[in-house]
Amino acid sequence: MPAPIRLRELIRTIRTARTQAEEREMIQKECAAIRSSFREEDNTYRCRNVAKLLYMHMLGYPAHFGQLECLKLIASQKFTDKRIGYLGAMLLLDERQDVHLLMTNCIKNDLNHSTQYVQGLALCTLGCMGSSEMCRDLAGEVEKLLKTSNSYLRKKAALCAVHVIRKVPELMEMFLPATKNLLNEKNHGVLHTSVVLLTEMCERSPDMLAHFRKVRQLSSSQLVPQLVRILKNLIMSGYSPEHDVSGISDPFLQVRILRLLRILGRNDDDSSEAMNDILAQVATNTETSKNVGNAILYETVLTIMDIKSESGLRVLAINILGRFLLNNDKNIRYVALTSLLKTVQTDHNAVQRHRSTIVDCLKDLDVSIKRRAMELSFALVNGNNVRGMMKELLYFLDSCEPEFKADCASGIFLAAEKYAPSKRWHIDTIMRVLTTAGSYVRDDAVPNLIQLITNSVEMHAYTVQRLYKAILGDYSQQPLVQVASWCIGEYGDLLVSGQCEEEEPIQVTEDEVLDILESVLISNMSASVTRGYALTAIMKLSTRFTCTVNRIKKVVSIYGSSIDVELQQRAVEYNALFKKYDHMRPALLERMPVMEKVTTNGPTEIVQTNGETEPAVLETKPPPSELQPASQEDDLLDLLGGTDITPVIPTAPTRKPASPGGELLDLLGDLNLTGSPVPAPAPQIAQPPFLLDGLTSPPLFNDVAAGIPSITAYNKNGLKIDFTFERSNTNPSVTVITIQASNSTELDMTDFVFQAAVPKTFQLQLLSPSSSVIPAFNSGTITQVIKVLNPQKQQLRMRIKLTYNHKGSAMQDLAEVNNFPPQSWQ
Amino acid sequence: MIKFFLMVNKQGQTRLSRYYEHVEINKRTMLEAEVIKNCLSRSKDQCSFIEYKDFKLVYRQYAALFVVVGIDQTENEMAVYELIHNFVEVLDKYFSRVSELDVSFSVSEIRL
Question: What Gene3D superfamilies does the record tag this protein with (chain A) (predicted)?
């Protein structure tokens, strides 16, 4: 067999390939050659072959057959072989392959080799892909190497130790004594890696963190002063050629130390105090003309924000961020916006000062910057600046990319709801959003808006007029059309009579209104949900309009044979209304009562977690919207609960059409349209599942059944859980249980999670708890609401599972709760 | 934490790749192609940090070669930006005026 080609030849050949197919062919040919060479057990050329294999692996071709060869290379005595072998091991092997364990012995021998480079190779590989078994076996060796005087090895050993700790956290204590002397090194490499090691230890285990904060060692001082001293030396020392990067001495080490200081100072007053000076010094002395200086300042700002620093320092930090914002460099502005987002919760006023700059960033060309600026703007909106901010944000909505529009629209709705100075302004803003970004508005915003409009009673005429004008021209934006048709259906009489105080009243005839609604129905652009809205609106107008009733009847009967099942169903029902139940029609299609205003559940401010603010904004939107159908039905049932005749029909047309048609079908399945009255309990049983699905906020029930005794469901190990009950008179199958968890031990219980399971005949809904930490000595409790649906009135039973962290260990317990009082389920 | 370190040229050919977390081999090529597409579509005066899936990309362009580093949320973006430059300077010293060819031919040396 001729000698296999060298790696360079291979690379050259592959580069000449013109197409992907040619390249693949060449590679396969070479792979075949390599495979046969491996089979021949050729020692001299093995390293060359494996090197080629690694190159092909990098390009994306499978190379797993080389794994054993790597092991053979590691076992050989030649340094070049070992080098390629370890590289191959790092790239091709990981803990998923069983083969890697064979390496353990080789690595062990190499860790004790005479040449430092071989030891270094072994440490690198172990630190890169060592599995937990390997780490356990070799940790002792690594620890020994951590104590040598050879700085080349020490730094590699420190990094390897980091990996070992990540894989096997229990071994952390083993490395503790070795870390004592690490910071006394002069070599920056060793310093850097030791700081990384200390950081990893502190992050992993709070015990270590406490240890490092407080320990007094005999010869040297505590950790924080040591770090402060090193940092000071770095800043004060003159030019040192080997560590200089654009005029600053070893910025990477500085950044690492700052990060470790951040971890040490978090929530700890003493350490924070010790750091204040050095942080101020770094903040003021660092040169900001180059990116390097800015990187250090960024890290300093993050540290200042995180520890318990004094207020002067915090103001300094925010001013630095403000300066960053004015910088021309995009990177710096992006970084400033991200950090401001993190700090806006705590230092709201300070950030307000930079509001105008932030708003300017909305107009930037860069996508990342725009997104950050948008999130920050929403966080900064408050009662005083809402008009100005809203103007800017609406302008932004007009011109931004589609991916932002949905988030921007939801954000605007939220802000408008919280801070609207007047109802008219609120409605104007909503109209503006609907017309500019109509198709991007989230579906659940529609019921929100409808509720809002219903509640602003005096604005009805104005609203419906504006909406009518909006869809006259263009009815392609679905949410806009939905809201508009709903309003026209409800307030059509106001529109036609032409009374409007706020604006010039327009002259509209009933026919024109019906024209518009019919065109929505017919148009191809309307979604089936929108069509449902339109049809219902037309139906409602039959009671509000006087001269066009026949036209309405005709329209409704046409759709009685529509292909769309939802539309057909509605049309058939409405037809029935006209024919047989005409006397009921006015009562059924009466004006909607004012819906109860519901406050959003949970935090309405944007929650910061390292810059990810989108999820929180999204989560707060669903709760208010889903409440609407529930309150609608509730009120309607109350309205018509008295009458003995089929009460199911009215709930169907006025139900929010966005809910799936399937539920309607279910309802009507019980229904008998031939005229015999369906028993009144039927709708009540069909109702609750939907009621419950919709309800996500604290109980709406105005008429709570009082007097159900509360019980202690669980009381063990200092953790006590009490249940209090509430039941509604309007819906006797729903029981609302509020749990309160308290802790009588001396230590807090953290990460508390409560889970419950009920027998199959029940349905359970758990809302989010008030927090996940139960403070000690009964000083506070966690509350959580559970809703149980019990249609068959069976005895309530529940199995609960509790998980929490107490005294540093995770606890878990299962229990059954059987002592529910009879009033809670009968 | 740094998730990966890539050097990709403008045509999308990977010159150097180092992954610090396990990624399936077929997903790697896809990942690299997407990443380079994101970087190529940026203009010169846009910022060097892109948010991609659940981590951030820090990229820097040197002639026809893009150096891209994927980091997660705990890492200081600007420090990584400097790190990229430092790395390129080291390569420059090692190869005396490094070019893309040097990078593609000395794969194993750069890796270690």
Answer: 2.60.40.1230, Leucine-rich Repeat Variant
Both tokens of residue A641?
Answer: 């609960």
> What pTM, to 2 d.p., does this model score?
0.59
Nearest to A397 by CA among A409, A386, A380, A381: A409
Q: Is A497 part of a structural domain of the chain?
A: yes
Cβ–Cβ contacts within 10 Å for residue A582, how many? 11
Question: How far apart, in whole angstroms, are the C-alpha atoms of residue A359 and residue A355?
Answer: 6
Output the DSSP codes for A501-526: SSSPPP---HHHHHHHHHHHHH-TTS
What does the pLDDT look like over A188-210, one tens digit per residue? Answer: 888 888 888 888 888 888 887 77
- Per-residue HEC secondary structure of A184-250 comes to HCCCHHHHHHHHHHHHHHHHHCHHHHHHHHHCCCCCCCCHHHHHHHHHHHHHHCCCCHHHEECCEEC
| Contact (CB, 8 A) for A204 and A172 | yes
pLDDT (tens digit, 9 = 90+) per residue, A336-362?
888 888 777 777 777 788 888 888 888
Expressed as residue numbers, the domain containing A474 is 443-589
Please say which residue of A554, A574, A589 terminates a domain: A589
Residues 6+ apart with CB under 8 A from B109: none
In a domain, A780, yes or no: yes
Q: Chain B residues with CB inside 8 Å of A11's CB?
A: 104-105
Q: Euclidean distance between the first and final Cα of chain B, in Å?
A: 19
Q: Of B29, B51, B82, which has the smallest distance from its Cβ to A245's Cβ?
A: B82
A682 lies in some domain: no
Q: Token pair 């909406």 is at which residue?
A: A467
CA–CA distance, A664 with A669 (Å, rounded to integer): 8
In the Cβ-directed half-sphere of A530, how many Cα atoms lie within 13 Å?
Answer: 24
* Residues ≥6 apart with Cβ < 8 Å to A768: A601, A602, A784
CB contact under 8 A, A83 and B108: yes
- One domain, residues A715 and A585: no
Q: Do A331 and B28 count as a contact with CB atoms less than 8 A apart? A: no
Last residue of a domain, one of A567, A589, A611: A589
Confidence of residue A330 (pLDDT cuts 50, 70, 90): confident
| Separation between Cα atoms, residue A489 and residue A633, nearest integer Å | 18
CB neighbour class for A266 (10 Å; exposed up to 12, middle 13-18, buried from 19) = middle
> Residues with Cβ < 8 Å from A762, sequence gap 6 or more?
A788, A789, A790, A794, A796
Asked if B83 has any chain A CB less than 8 Å from its own CB, the reply is: yes
Kindly report the backbone phi and psi dihedral angles of residue A743, in degrees, each rounded to the nearest multiple of 5, phi listed first: -130, 115
Tokens standing for residue A814: 């299962």
User: Which 8-state DSSP code applies to residue A173?
Assistant: H
DSSP secondary structure code for residue A169 in this structure: G
What topology is assigned to B2-95 in CATH?
Beta-Lactamase (3.30.450)
Instruction: Specify the pLDDT at position A612.
Output: 35
Distance from CA of B53 to the nearest CA of A (A): 12
- Name the residue among A816, A824, A818 with its Cα closest to residue A799: A816
List all residues of chain A from 123 to 142 with a beta carbon under 8 Å from chain B. Answer: 124
Taking CB atoms and an 8 Å cutoff, what residues of chain A touch B49? 331, 334-335, 368
The domain ranges of chain B are: 2-95
Closest CA to A105 of A142, A137, A70: A137
- Find which of A365-369, A636-640, A641-645 is predicted with most confidence, using mean pLDDT: A365-369
Q: Check whether A295 has a pLDDT greater than 50.
A: yes
Q: Report, as ranges of residue numbers, the positions in chain B whose pLDDT lies below 70.
A: 45, 107-109, 111-112
What rounded mean pLDDT belongs to chain B? 79
For tokens 């930079």, what's the residue? A354
Q: Tell me what pLDDT residue A676 has.
A: 37
ipTM for the complex shown = 0.75
